[in-house]
Specification:
heterodimer, A: 398 residues, mainly alpha, Cytochrome Bc1 Complex, Chain D, domain 2, two-stranded parallel sheet, 5% strand, B: 266 residues, mainly beta, five-stranded mixed sheet, 12% helix, 38% strand
Chain lengths: 398, 266
C-alpha cells in the first residue's frame, strides 16, 4: 500500500540543471527555476549559458591549442584536433641545362615536408629491428650510394644489385636499375618491406610513428594530418630526395667560365664528347644520363640478371639497364648494376675493350670486338675528366 | 458552264504540276528545302574544320621497312654492303604548307620521330585553314636558328638527340644505326651540326591539296627512302667509325638527302 503510494508520488521542483535551484530529485518541473543573471554569454563557447544576461569571464573554449598553427585559438583549453598548418614552398632551382624536375601535383615540395623527409630518411625506426635507415645504404658522402658491391639488409641477407646513387634522382623518369618503378614516392614503399633490405611491415611503421609525439607533430605541420599513414611517409621521403641536387662540380664551374680544367681533364672531356670515347650518346646532357636503358656490353648471354626485360617481358630488353648519372662518380664505387667494377680504371678498361658482344648490345657500342684503342694517357685523361664531375658541396653539405 | 469548270480545274492541275519548286536540295546544307526539287545553287553549309594528319613512313628500295631483327641483314646499300636498321631517330622541323595565293601555313615547328614508337609516326593538326595548297616544305633536322644547345631541355628528344658542345653543340638531325656486313659490326650514321656547320636542308614537294569548307580530313605522308642516304650523288660506305666529326661526309649526306624524302597526298 505504502509502496504504491510512493511510486505514485512524483517529486516536483526545478528540473533544469543550469538553474540555481536545480533539484536533481525533481521529476516534474513546476516552473520554479531561477536562473543566474551572470554566466558565459558567448554562443561559441563550450559552456555557453543561453539564459545568462550578464557576461562573466568564465567562458571556456575548445579549438586548436597549438601556438604554431594557423588557427591557434589563445582561449582554447581543450584541443579538438582542428589545428591547421600552412606550409612554405621549398623552391628547387633548375640548374643550367637541366629539364624541369618531375614533381607530382599532389606532392609539392615544402620546407616542412623536406625536413620531415630528411629525418625519416636517416631514421632507423623504418626498419624491422630499428638497425637500418635509408641512409645506411645511401650515404651522402658516397653520393648517396654505399661502398659495398651488394648491400646487406637488416637480416644480413645480401642483395644482387649495387645501391644506386640518389644524385639528381628528381630528374629520373624511372627508378631502380631495371626501371621497375616510375616515381620516387612509389620507390620508397619498397625498401621498407623488402626482406633483403629493411624487412619491416608498413602497419608496424605506422604504429610506431603514430606513437611518437614528435612525428605526429611534424606530419601535422607538413601535411595537416592527425594520423600518419604510409602514403605520407613516402611523400615526405620523396620530397627530401628531390632536394638532392648536384650541379656545382668543377666541370660546371668550367662551363660557367669560373674555373679552368687541367690539360689532362680537357683531353678527357674531348674523348668523352667525341666519337673517340663516345660516352655522350648515353651519358650526355647536363644530367650525364639519358633516362633510357642500354646494354653496354658487360656480359655474354644468357644473362644472370636480365634487367629491363624482367619488367617488360620483352627479350629484346635482355641485359639492358638504366644509364646512371656520372655526376659524383668518383665517390659512388663500386660500379655497374652489380657493382662488378671497384674502380674507374676498371670501368674505363671495360669500355676501352669495346665490351662483350650479345644480341641486345647497344649499336652505340660500335667498337665491340675492336675496342676504343685509347692510350694509357688517354685512359687516365678520361678518368681525370670523370673526377671533375665531383660536387664537394653536395657531398659535404650540412 | 460545266465545261468551263472542267477546263479551269485542268488548267489548275497542269499549272501546279508544272511548277517545280527551286531551292537547296542538299540535305546536309543548313538551308535544305525539302520541298525544293530543283537545286538553285543556294545551299549554305556550316564550315567543317579540316583535320590534317601527317604520317611518317620509311622504305628501303621502295619496299616496306622493318626495324632490324638480330642476325639478319635484309638490306643492301649502293656500295654492296648488307645492313639492317636497329635505331632510326630523326627530327623534321618547320613543316609548312604553301598555298596558291602566296600564303604559307606552319603546320608543326619540330617533330621527333622514333621509328620504334608508333606514337611518333604521325601527328594530327586540327582546323587546317581552307586553301588551295600547292606545295609542302620541311627541314631535315634543325636549322641554325633552332639548333641551339639546351634549347629543348623539356622535350623528349633532348637527351636522345643531344649533340656535344665540344663538336658544335645543339642536336643530332638523325641517328640511323644497325649492323652491317655481319651481325657483330655496327655502323652509326649520325648527322648533325659538326663544328657548328649547318648541314640541315629544306625539302620541298609540289602537291595538290585543296581543302574547302566541306573537307573534314586530309592526309599527307612523308616518306624517307633510307638507301638514298647512301647514294646519288655520293656513294657512301658505312663503317664502324663514327661520322659526327667528319665534315666531308656530313656534306655528302646532305647532298644525298635531296631525293631521300617524298610526299604523298592520300
Amino acid at each position: 500500500m505504502f509502496a504504491i503510494l510512493y511510486s505514485c508520488k512524483k517529486e516536483e521542483g526545478c528540473t533544469d540543471p543550469v538553474a540555481t535551484n536545480f533539484n536533481s530529485d525533481a521529476e516534474i518541473d513546476d516552473g520554479s527555476c531561477n536562473y543566474p543573471a551572470e554566466g558565459c554569454t558567448d554562443s561559441t563557447a563550450s559552456n555557453y549559458n543561453p539564459y545568462a544576461i550578464l557576461s562573466t569571464n568564465t567562458c571556456e573554449y575548445i579549438g586548436c591549442t597549438d601556438s604554431t598553427a594557423d588557427n591557434y585559438n589563445i582561449y582554447a583549453i581543450y584541443d579538438d584536433g582542428s589545428c591547421e598548418f600552412s606550409t612554405t614552398p621549398y623552391i628547387i632551382e633548375t640548374p643550367f641545362g637541366f629539364p624541369n624536375m618531375i614533381i607530382p601535383d599532389n606532392n609539392p615540395t615544402t620546407i616542412e615536408g623536406v625536413l620531415l623527409g630528411e629525418k625519416l630518411f636517416h631514421d632507423k625506426i623504418l626498419s624491422g629491428d630499428e638497425s637500418q635507415s635509408c641512409s645506411s645504404c645511401h650515404q651522402k658522402e658516397l653520393g648517396f650510394s654505399d661502398g659495398n658491391r651488394f648491400s646487406a639488409g637488416i637480416d644480413g641477407i645480401i642483395g644482387s644489385r649495387n645501391a644506386s646513387t640518389l644524385t639528381n634522382s628528381g630528374w629520373n623518369t624511372s627508378f631502380n636499375w631495371d626501371g621497375s618503378v616510375s616515381s620516387l614516392e612509389e620507390q620508397a614503399f619498397e625498401p621498407v618491406v623488402n626482406p633483403i633490405e629493411m624487412h619491416n611491415t608498413w602497419a608496424n611503421v605506422e604504429t610506431k610513428l603514430n606513437a611518437n609525439g614528435e612525428y605526429l607533430q611534424l606530419f601535422k605541420e607538413a601535411f595537416n594530418i592527425n594520423y600518419i599513414d604510409s602514403n605520407h611517409v613516402v611523400m615526405a621521403i620523396a620530397q627530401f630526395e628531390r632536394t638532392l641536387v648536384s650541379a656545382n662540380s668543377k666541370f660546371d664551374r668550367y662551363i660557367e667560365g669560373n674555373e679552368q680544367l687541367s690539360a689532362s681533364e680537357l683531353s678527357g672531356y674531348a674523348i668523352f664528347n667525341s666519337e673517340k670515347g663516345d660516352c655522350f650518346h648515353c651519358h650526355g646532357t647536363q644530367l650525364f644520363m639519358d633516362n633510357d636503358f642500354h646494354n653496354n656490353g658487360l656480359d655474354h648471354e644468357p644473362f644472370l640478371d636480365i634487367g629491363l626485360a624482367s619488367i617488360t617481358n620483352n627479350p629484346a630488353d635482355n641485359g639492358k639497364f638504366k644509364t646512371p648519372t656520372l655526376r659524383n662518380i668518383e665517390h659512388t664505387a663500386p660500379y655497374m648494376h652489380d657493382g662488378r667494377f671497384s674502380t674507374l680504371e676498371e670501368v674505363v678498361a671495360h669500355y676501352n675493350s669495346g665490351g662483350i658482344y650479345s644480341s641486345t648490345i647497344d649499336p652505340n657500342m660500335k667498337k665491340v670486338g675492336i675496342g676504343l684503342q685509347l692510350t694509357e694517357q688517354e685512359k687516365a685523361d678520361l678518368i681525370a675528366y670523370l673526377k671533375t664531375l665531383t660536387d664537394s658541396d653536395f657531398l659535404e653539405k650540412k | 458552264m460545266k465545261k468551263l469548270l472542267l477546263l479551269s480545274i485542268t488548267i489548275a492541275i497542269t499549272f501546279f504540276a508544272c511548277k517545280k519548286e527551286e531551292g537547296c536540295t542538299d540535305p546536309v546544307a543548313t538551308n535544305f528545302n525539302s520541298n525544293a526539287e530543283i537545286d538553285d545553287g543556294s545551299c549554305e553549309y556550316t564550315p567543317i574544320s579540316t583535320n590534317l594528319t601527317i604520317n611518317f613512313t620509311h622504305t628501303v628500295d621502295a619496299t616496306n621497312f622493318i626495324l632490324g631483327a638480330v642476325g639478319t641483314l635484309p638490306y643492301t646499300n649502293n656500295a654492296g654492303q648488307p645492313y639492317n636498321v636497329k635505331r632510326l631517330w630523326y627530327i623534321i622541323s618547320d613543316i609548312t604548307l604553301h598555298a596558291e595565293d602566296g600564303t604559307s601555313n606552319l603546320i608543326k615547328d619540330i617533330h621527333f620521330i622514333d621509328a620504334s614508337e608508333v606514337s611518333t609516326l604521325s601527328f594530327i593538326t586540327n582546323d587546317l585553314e581552307d586553301n588551295n595548297y600547292t606545295s609542302i616544305s620541311y627541314t631535315m633536322g634543325l636549322n641554325p636558328t633552332k639548333n641551339i644547345s639546351n634549347a629543348y631541355v623539356n622535350e623528349d628528344f633532348h637527351s636522345k638527340m643531344f649533340w656535344p658542345e665540344f663538336i658544335g653543340g645543339g642536336y643530332h638531325y638523325m641517328k640511323l644505326e644497325g649492323n652491317f656486313n655481319d651481325s657483330i659490326t655496327f655502323y652509326n650514321t649520325h648527322t648533325g651540326p659538326t663544328n657548328g656547320e649547318d648541314y640541315s636542308f629544306i625539302h620541298t614537294d609540289i602537291i595538290t591539296l585543296v581543302t574547302t569548307e566541306t573537307t573534314s580530313e586530309a592526309i599527307i605522308s612523308i616518306n624517307m627512302e633510307i638507301n638514298n642516304w647512301y647514294q646519288n650523288p655520293n656513294s657512301i660506305t658505312i663503317s664502324n667509325n663514327g661520322i659526327m666529326e667528319n665534315m666531308p661526309i656530313q656534306m655528302q649526306m646532305k647532298q644525298n638527302g635531296s631525293d631521300v624524302f617524298s610526299t604523298l597526298i592520300n
